[in-house]
Amino acid sequence: MEIEIMAFGIARDIFGASALKVQAVENSTVKQLLEDLKNQYPKLQELRSVAIAINTEYADLEQVIKPGDEVVIIPPVAGG
Amino acid sequence: MEIEIMAFGIARDIFGASALKVQAVENSTVKQLLEDLKNQYPKLQELRSVAIAINTEYADLEQVIKPGDEVVIIPPVAGG
Amino acid sequence: MAIDIQLLHTPLSLQHCQDWVAGAACGGIVHFVGTVREQTGGRPVSRLDFEAYEPMAVSEMRKIAETVKKRWPAERVVIHHRVGKLEIGEIAVIIAVATPHRVDAFAACQYAIDTLKQTVPIWKKEIFTDGEVWVAAHP
Amino acid sequence: MAIDIQLLHTPLSLQHCQDWVAGAACGGIVHFVGTVREQTGGRPVSRLDFEAYEPMAVSEMRKIAETVKKRWPAERVVIHHRVGKLEIGEIAVIIAVATPHRVDAFAACQYAIDTLKQTVPIWKKEIFTDGEVWVAAHP
User: For chain D, does the N or the C end have fewer beta carbons within 10 angstroms?
Assistant: First the structure.
């Protein structure tokens, strides 16, 4: 299954793109996706935190990604 | 010696005037003045607090009132 | 001087306070705005009359602002208080504190309004449809 | 609805927030105003660029306002956040909370800004004369 990941802030700079398509096995979890991304983009490991949002909500590590989900990588936030 | 006392808020209502002249012995203290006023105007005793300001500063009970001092009776404040 | 104290007979302006405190060195500004409530203990209020022993009120407000500057790294402090007749919803007091870090601005602003209510010689009379009362005068 | 959440590409207005929260039932209003500081750790900042994952940022800001309404007797809550390019001194965020008693307004407003900084997907890049950095990205 192909997952499209949107990226903001420093994650976009690290990806070199505001969206990224990655291949994943069916029933892939957020944890697996994060591990794959960190392996492919080691600079993500240097960040204070990296989270995944699915359909505009913070996702648990065990959450399964479904086809059609809106997946966003969330580097450390700094609003305010 | 004659002391003129300015009054605001409920103290003005109790005095029935915005200023009051009272006779006091020389070297009268704030404590003596307050006792005299409370005897003369018993409704002052019902208030949550009564303070005296001399020359725009809160006065200690032992402070001596001098001729020419600006003396103000301060009933419970309620700003804000 | 980084302190602005005013006792005004005219409506207070929050925008004025914001413009005055906002400095390029401060990231956090906290404003407290106190307005006239429509009721007290369920009893509908028509209006409020504020009066002040003006020179001392200004002096006590200035002491509060100076204490704020001593205790917290506040760049700017504004305390504006209204006197006279106020209608429901009108602003009676604005306190604004600007600090480099927000936690100080909250603490300092809260200190300032708490102390103002305890020390500044300002009195308010609540006018009801059927009477009036000097607020907080009696235990 | 007693909650006003906005993510804006145009300048924020404190007066607008005050007018919106000020209700006749509330005596205490606390505003937090966050502005762009001229320097970070002694290094002069030229500008800030804010960006947001907008639908989620609005949703997370709404959650904060709803939590405020649950935990404190807040009548009205405003959270406005700016996005885009901001110059020094411009307002990045305004949070306003109106409650019957002031102690609740201070606590709720502080909770809201603390939580916003932890959870709302907004990022800011500080632009210096000689480079740029995503704020708080690295430990």
Answer: N
* Contacting residues of C for B75, CB less than 8 Å apart: 123, 134, 137
Q: Quick check: C57 and C7 in contact, CB under 8 A?
A: yes
Q: Which domain holds residue C47?
A: 3-131
CA distance A15 to C34: 49
Q: Which of A46, A56, A77 sits opposite D122 (nearest CB)?
A: A77
Q: What is the ipTM of this complex?
A: 0.93
Chains D and A touch (3+ CB pairs under 8 A): yes
Residue C124 lies in a domain: yes
pLDDT of residue C41: 77
Average pLDDT, chain C: 94
d(CA C78, CA C97): 7
Give the domain CATH number at D42: 3.90.1170.40
- Residue C32 has phi, psi (to 5 degrees) of -105, 130
Query: In terms of Cα–Cα distance, which of D7, B80, A3, D62 is closest to C32?
Result: B80
Residue C51 has its nearest CB partner, among B9, B46, B58, at: B9
Rounded distance between C-alpha atoms, residue C75 and residue C52, angstroms = 28
Count structural domains, chain C. 1
Of the pLDDT bands very low, low, confident and very high (cuts 50, 70, 90), residue D126 is very high
Locus of tokens 């009066």: C51
Contacts for D55 with CB less than 8 Å, ≥ 6 apart: A56
- Average pLDDT value over all residues in chain D: 94
The model's pLDDT over C103-132, given as tens digits with 9 standing for 90+, comes to 999 999 999 999 999 999 999 999 998 899
Q: Does D124 touch chain A (CB under 8 A)?
A: yes
| pLDDT for residue D1 | 63
In chain D, residues 76-115 whose CB comes closer than 8 Å to chain A: 81, 92-93, 113
Is A2 an 8 Å CB contact of chain D?
Answer: no
Contact D137, A9 (CB under 8 A): yes
